[in-house]
Amino acid sequence: MTVEQHTRATAPSGAVARLRSARVPLLSGAAVGAAGLALVLRDPNRSGSWGACPLYALTGWYCPACGGLRATHDLLTGDLAGAWAMNPVWVLLVPVVVGLWARWAWLRSRGRRADLGIQDRWYVVALVLLLVYGVARNVPAWSGVLAPPG
């Protein structure tokens, strides 16, 4: 048996190869699913159930992610209004994150490189927008709309 014949004989079949290529996105999805289940089972709306935001504990300021666990819990339990009240930006970002993950998994399952297709400048724009949101939710005039409730 030649090396080429041996390679062809031992190479995984198409479905197995695609599954191996998609292993990292699938494992990531499983980890996020397990974390989501933990959020459903242990309600972050109960004080102290998941700890506290270190920035808020030290400064009293809301970071752009404050309320994110509670918003995710509310989304997973079907309370869109509650999630929106906790962190509207996260509610808007969830479909984007899920779509990017699905694209990543699809491309990897086809054996293709899975870049996000986002130009570098958009990362800077996103960072600036998150910083502006983080400041805006601490402005007293806007905190009633942007800051998570108590």
Topology (SSEs and partners):
Blueprint (H helix, E strand, L loop, with lengths): L2 H8 L3 H8 L1 H19 L12 H6 L8 H9 L3 H7 L1 H22 L10 H17 L3 H7 L4
Helix pairs in contact: 3-7, 5-6, 6-7
Verbal overview:
- The chain is mostly helical.
- The protein has one domain.
- Helix content is 69%, strand content 0%.
- The chain has helices spanning 3-10, 14-21, 23-41, 54-59, 68-76, 80-86, 88-109, 120-136, 140-146.
- Helix 3 (23-41) packs antiparallel against helix 7 (88-109), helix 5 (68-76) packs antiparallel against helix 6 and helix 6 packs across helix 7 (88-109).
- The longest helix has 22 residues, at 88-109.
- It is globular.
- The model has no long low-confidence stretch (mean pLDDT 83).
Which characteristics define this entry?
globular; 69% helix; mainly alpha; 9 helices; 150 residues
Subunit organisation of the chains:
single chain
Major pleated sheet: none
Strand content is under 5%
Any low-confidence stretches, pLDDT <50, length ≥5?
A: none
Large-scale geometry: globular
Terminal Cα separation, in Å? 71 Å
Return Rg in Å. 21 Å
- Name the structural class: mainly alpha
Number of domains in the coordinates?
Answer: 1
Task: Kindly state the number of beta strands.
Answer: 0
Please bin the fraction of helical residues: 55-70%
Task: State the order of secondary-structure elements, H for helix, E for strand.
Answer: HHHHHHHHH
Q: What is the number of helices? A: 9
**What is the residue-averaged pLDDT?**
83
